[in-house]
Amino acid sequence: MRKAFAPLLVLAAVLFAAAPYFIAQAPYESTMGLIQKIMYFHVPSWIGMYSAILVCGVASALYLFRNNQAADRYAVSAAELAVMFGLMGLVTGPLWGRKAWGVWWEWDVRLTSALLLELVFVAYLLVRKYGGPGAEKLAAATALFGFAVAPFVYKSVDIWRTVHPKTSVVPTLPKVMAGPLALTAFAFLLLFLVLLTLRVRLAERQALLDELYLAHEE
Amino acid sequence: MGTVGRVGQMVWSSGVLRMGHVGRLILTSLLFALIVAPAALAIQTAPPGQSEYVPIKDLPATDQIPAAPLLIAAYAFVWIAVLFYLWTIWRRLGKVEDEMRTLAQKTMRR
Predict the structure, then answer these.
(1) Which of A42, A176, B44, B108 could lock A92 by a disulfide, CB 3.0 to 4.6 Å apart?
(2) pLDDT above 90 for A10
(3) Structural domain contains residue A75
(4) Which percentage of chain B shows pLDDT scores above 90?
(5) Do A84 and B85 touch (CB under 8 A)?
(6) B-chain residues within 8 Å CB-CB of A37?
(7) Nearest CA to A64 among A140, A115, A156, A142?
(8) Given a cut of 90, is residue B37 above it in pLDDT?
(9) Does residue A57 surpass a pLDDT of 90?
(10) Mean of the pLDDT values across residues B72-81?
(11) What average pLDDT does chain A have?
């Protein structure tokens, strides 16, 4: 991962530099017009969050059941990224909704469950920071809960009646809109990998510092 | 030359016929204008005058909100969030490295 860091960073930078051109070239949506172009950052931010949840969930399971310390470092790093990408989705969504629906927020199933999912990972970070001894295990269990809930949040728009568009919207996009969306989604995935690599590096240095303190005290 | 011929000669010499020719052109143009202009006006009929003004609060909320500032705010927020997160990682890494250096110096003094 560390060897691929520089090429990933360069590729992500190139894609983000090219993204505005392709987003500008994409046609306007017939009913929403200009504001619909928020989609090209809104949907990828949720893709980033779900990728982070996947990494955090798997790594937490490895830590919880096999006591893998390296996995725990991946879990805490991915949890932070889940919160960051989730925050992007929760901010860009209401900005889109304000124009498209006429309201900033609607307490419907998708929006509310997405907010709760964000709060689950905020809780993970708070438990780790203030939970005291054994907080890592408790946080890992919280991450597993978030990991299990995430698919329901995604499918909620198909199960219940909400103001949010259904999951069928993205696969049925015409090529002229799907192309720029695929580009930004890929750019966000690369950004996720770059940030994860950096954050894991920080976690490794922190773990090494803890070991050095213990050795120093002995 | 009969009577008709003489009248014709008189009309021609007085220039009435020539004037009449130009007059016919003018008359045809006027008739054309009178026939075509109302038809053209009928096609581009202005909407009927408003009987009342509708207050803005009665318009749908989505029509009152400009899209561009919201779009710019969304994209700006994403970039600010990424840059802020990168800054926090950089700051925390710096703190850890500083602590490591301090600890190494303490160990050296021992």
Answers:
(1) A42
(2) yes
(3) yes
(4) 33
(5) yes
(6) 71
(7) A140
(8) no
(9) yes
(10) 96
(11) 94
Residue B105: list chain A partners with CB under 8 A: none
| Backbone dihedral region for residue A33 (phi beyond 0: left; psi -120 to 50: alpha; all else: beta) | left
CA distance A42 to A181: 10
Q: What is the pLDDT of residue B110?
A: 73
Q: Are B67 and A33 within 8 A, CB to CB? A: yes
Question: Does A204 lie at the interface with B, CB-CB under 8 angstroms?
Answer: no
Residue A155's nearest CA partner among A113, A186, A97 is A113
C-alpha A117/C-alpha A65 separation (Å) is: 23
Residues comprising chain B, all counted: 110
- Tell me, yes or no, whether A6 lies in a domain: no
pLDDT band at residue B109 using 50, 70 and 90 as cut-offs:
confident
Asked if residue A12 is part of any domain, the answer here is: no
For residue A80, which amino acid is it? E
Rounded to whole angstroms, how far apart are CA atoms A173 and A164? 16
Q: How far apart are CA B8 and CA A212, in angstroms?
A: 130
- State how far the Cα of A99 lies from the Cα of B32, in Å rounded to an integer: 52
Q: Domain containing A89: what range? A: 39-217
* B7 pLDDT more than 70: no
Nearest Cα of chain B lies from the Cα of A177 at a distance, in angstroms, of 17
Q: Residue A32: how many CB atoms within 10 A of its CB?
A: 17
Asked if residue A89 is part of any domain, the answer here is: yes
> Does residue A99 belong to the interface with chain B, where contact is any CB pair within 8 Å?
yes
Which token pair is A74?
């991946």
Across the interface, do A202 and B73 touch by the CB < 8 Å criterion? no
The pLDDT tens digits for A178-217 are 999 999 999 999 999 999 999 999 999 999 999 999 888 8
Q: How much is the average pLDDT of A174-179?
A: 95
Is B76 part of the contact surface with chain A (CB cutoff 8 Å)? Answer: no
Contact A98 B65 (CB under 8 A): yes
Residue A213, chain B, CB below 8 Å: the answer is yes
- Euclidean distance between CA atoms B38 and A108, whole angstroms: 58
How many structural domains is chain A composed of?
1
Pair of tokens at residue A89: 């989705």
